[in-house]
Amino acid sequence: MARVAQVARLCANAAAFAALWLGLPDGPRPTQAQPHETREAAAAPAAAEAGAAAALPAELAKLATLPASQQARGLRAAARQGALEKLDDATLTALFQSLDPQAVPDYIAAGPIGYPSYEFTMLRQERIDGKWSDKPDHMLVKVTREPLRVYAKWLPDGAHGGQEVIYDSTKRADEMYGHLGGLLGKLPMWTALDGTLARAQSNHQVRDLGTEFIANLYLSEARKYRDAGVQKPTRIEAKTIGGVRVIALTYETPGRPLFYAKRATLGLDLRQPYFRTVESYDNDGRIFERVIFEKITPKSLGDSEFDPKNSDYHF
């Protein structure tokens, strides 16, 4: 009986999902995706993999025949209303395998790929000067976009624990203010965003922190994927990474210098059009970057959150 109830629940979720998707009005596409309209309308039916479509409930299998623009709009509605995250792993995987290759890029391009003001915790691990970090950074980050301001704190259970930096584009656009961790690291100083100190700990600038950078990089790479004929992911699977359930999309490319990574696995959030996890591999097959956004919280952040005199900070 429990098994029957579970199957009934899954069928109900799939039916509700399909009704939501297929009931969408055929409104205008996002401006960013317009160049693909003519191509996708003809190619969409062929884009669905027979195996994936066969594995889907009948209601969802119909979605594979839609053009990418409608699939992208359907993803947006389904994600926002919680329908995506209600699907079990097998159905979620089969659904994304059945989509037109352009559907996910169009979905991401329509946004929003972040928030005007938000806070998040993240795990970040990188290969610096050829050496892979044994321990990931565990960070608390606060960001506003207009103006661009960033506060980052390295939490004590990760690498570089105790370190803090503040970046405020309205004060010094090319510098950040910060201090190292430990007893000898409490002397704050101004340093260049891409200076020796910054590059010793990350291949990215503090301005790159957030979901927007990864989404924009994906969109840039997606255009190159199409040109190189590798637009469809080589692997698609629903999985939980670092406690975060995502649909993981793996792309394999000719590698550097043309592409950011030889192989990249990006974990798409099930409620918002941005990525929660990233793993990137170099031309030799070595991982050089791993990022997990553990928790993302939109919130209003005032001036005091980016002031080194804040009593909660240790500048």
TrEMBL record:
The keyword Signal applies. It holds the Pfam family DUF1571. Keywords: Signal. Residues 1-18 form the signal peptide. It comes from the Bacteria. This is DUF1571 domain-containing protein. It comes from Burkholderia singularis.
